[in-house]
Amino acid sequence: MSGVNKNIVILISGSGSNMAAIVETSIQQRWQARLKARVVAVISNKAGAQGLAWAREQGIASHALDHTQFSSREAFDAALMVEIDRHAPTLVVLAGFMRILTPGFVQHYKGRLVNIHPSLLPAFTGLKTHQRAIDMGCRVAGATVHRVTSELDHGEILDQAVVPVLPGDTAETLAARVLTQEHVIYPRALERLLTA
Ligand code: GAR
């Protein structure tokens, strides 16, 4: 692909629907022409991740790096950095990557590392965000795209989407409503970052 010079590496752990939304946006003419960016690799810490098979089918370089094969978080992150850096990334995009990253990793990608979190940060960092929002009686929930710092689910907010919490919602129904909006805001936030 001539003239494309900004590489995006996406890290996933599961279904990879955000990754797919980003890939599908990135192949649009607008992205190709204006942003000169493309998704060059998808890496998962789980070999069986559904999203990895999808990426492979799209012809995107796909790798699994099983974190259970490493003796420490630092050793895993070091190997992950080697794999990522082979692709000379402009952006490293965490899309449902369910691993806490070491400060060394975060520092290495300072200014290039972004994440999506399924809550309206700074509320509900960590896990089980949808159930916690329901339990607290929140009337709205949502998702946040943010820069990654060594503090979990902190860092500059780049974009957010808000959805209603409806009577009778379960964590699953709310998660599904939030996820559809994640697919809108993540590509949009990346587009802004790549344009800046
Ligand atoms: C998304 O809801 C994302 O916000 C969340 O995992 C899901 C991944 O879905 N991320 C986190 O909880 C990170 N702490 P996907 O694999 O279909 O994109």
Describe the model.
This protein is α/β, with parallel strands linked by helices and 196 residues long. The chain has one domain (6-195): Rossmann fold (3-Layer(aba) Sandwich), CATH 3.40.50. The chain contains seven helices and seven strands. It has helices at 17-26, 29-35, 50-57, 73-85, 103-108, 129-135, 171-195, and strands at 6-12, 37-44, 61-64, 91-94, 113-117, 140-147, 157-164. It has a seven-stranded mixed beta sheet with strand order 3-2-1-4-5-6-7. The protein is globular, with a radius of gyration of 16 Å. The mean pLDDT is 96. The protein binds glycinamide ribonucleotide (GAR). Glycinamide ribonucleotide binds at residues 12, 14-18, 51, 95-96, 116-118, 143, 179, 182. The site of glycinamide ribonucleotide (GAR) has 15 residues, from helix 1, strand 5 and helix 7.
Topology, element by element:
Layout: E1 6-12, H1 17-26, H2 29-35, E2 37-44, H3 50-57, E3 61-64, H4 73-85, E4 91-94, H5 103-108, E5 113-117, H6 129-135, E6 140-147, E7 157-164, H7 171-195
Parallel strand pairs: 1-2, 1-4, 2-3, 4-5
Antiparallel strand pairs: 5-6, 6-7
Helix pairs in contact: 1-7, 6-7
Bound molecules: glycinamide ribonucleotide.
Glycinamide ribonucleotide binds next to helix 1, strand 5 and helix 7.
